[in-house]
Hints:
The structure holds 2 protein chains of 2 kinds.
Chain A: E1 5-16, E2 19-30, E3 34-38, H1 45-52, E4 60-65, E5 68-69, H2 75-82, E6 85-88, H3 100-111, H4 116-129, H5 145-158, E7 163-167, H6 175-192, E8 195-199, H7 203-209, E9 212-217, E10 220-226, H8 227-231, H9 236-245
Parallel strand pairs in A: 3-8, 3-9, 6-7, 7-8
Antiparallel strand pairs in A: 1-2, 1-4, 4-5, 9-10
Helix pairs in contact in A: 3-4, 3-5, 4-5, 5-6
Chain B: H1 2-32, H2 39-49, H3 54-78, H4 85-123, H5 126-132, H6 137-175, H7 180-190, H8 193-219, H9 225-254
Helix pairs in contact in B: 1-6, 2-6, 3-4, 3-6, 4-6, 4-7, 4-8, 4-9, 6-8, 8-9
Amino acid sequence: MSLPIAIQIRGVEKKFGDHEVLKGVDLDIPKGKITTIIGPSGEGKSVLLKHMIGLIRPDCGTVMVDGVDLSSLGERKLNEIRKKFAMLFQSAALFDSMNVFDNVAFPLREKRLKTESEIQIAVFEMLERVGLRAMGHKFPAELSGGMKKRAGLARALAMGPEIILFDEPTTGLDPLMVHAIHHLILSMHQTFGFTGIMVSHEIPEIFPISDWVAMLKGGTIIAMKPSEEFRQLTDPRVREFISVNNGMAAMPV
Amino acid sequence: MSLIRYLGARAIEFIEEMGKMALFLLRAFGWFFRPPVRIYQIIKQMHFVGFKSSFVVTLTAAFTGMVLALQGYYTLRKFGSEALLGSAVALSMIRELGPVLASLMVTARAGSAITAEIGIMRITEQIDALETMAINPLQYLVTPKIIASLLCVPLLVAIFDVVGIGGGYLVGVKLLGVSGGSYWSSIESAVEWKDVYGGILKSISFGLIVSWVCCYKGYFTKMSAEGLGRATTQSVVLASVLILVWDYFLTSILL
Lengths: 253, 255
């Protein structure tokens, strides 16, 4: 690959108790692209994603972000690196003690880079983009699943991150909403040009929105290809996973 | 052999847990001295731990003082020394019952809520979300709660003492007919600075125990609803037991 690399993972292994989850993962995340990691449930896709932002540290191996190895950094240096990142969690992880507006404003207020009136404008603009302009005063508990993901996305985008991690951004949503969220991610990507790394199960859906697709199975990356090439792979492990998950596999897209 | 192995494993587990708890507390304190100082969070927690507990503390204090006066009166009357009722009520309040009962009420009301709040934030990944925003969750969530409880529990205990002594006055003087003058003067002559100081020391340490245990149990909640329920129960039981055990040792040191 001759593309510029945002995150480089080499030989990452992780055990939880006796359970070996990652057994030597090598992965390059190209800069400015959307890379989707697919694979069977419980194979450690989310665990791998959390390694990239230092929420989990590898037992061995390295996670390099712009040439800095996260696995050996102290808290202060790690927080410097984390400023490049944002993460959209599976459950959206909105702070349920705050309304949607305050949730989106929270990282901005914490960093104190802007005045309160600038923050107000920025937050309204971001809520507008994700289609939640009128929902700022609502609390997370009052929102539907799709709205929570939108609010989570607005919060992730608010700091203008270079890299956004999406941990199963469409889990638990109906098919229409899945499509809407994917479309939103794609259009935000076109607007802001961040590097996106997504963990997902939505097999046919993710191909058109991803630039690259990687598959994690048995604790290692077994394939990583540009989206179109990935669909043509003949590796039986990939074929089995794609076709089992994809009722429409036989249909032309 | 397997019994020995079992006991050994449990002992190692126990010591490990103690070490984890100690490190947790040290880190939480360490974060207090690093910027930013989270004044707003501390005030919010003081409102929650302190102000919102004041009603239940006042209520329990009034009845504790009243029953103490009632019991004390019938006991003291056997020796013809009802005049000492004031000092009996005040000393037991200030030295023992105030700190212990007020702290137990704070544990039941605020402590369980602290564990549940932090535990829910853990299992819904809100704590991870804080970390990804480069905000230290200990500094944001735990430190303000510990500071707030160190400040508020002594104040609640002071309220408890005063209301309790007032409750004793109500029953002893107004209901049972002890002379008001002797009620107050016996308090004045019997209560020393050492008693008050001991009570304050107790209440500060109980405040620390409550917030420490409850934050710790919430922070390391197992990732399930069942885990959260267990963490909340454990935190209340552990904090209450620790308060009573530590109360004994502290009293024996202070005496």
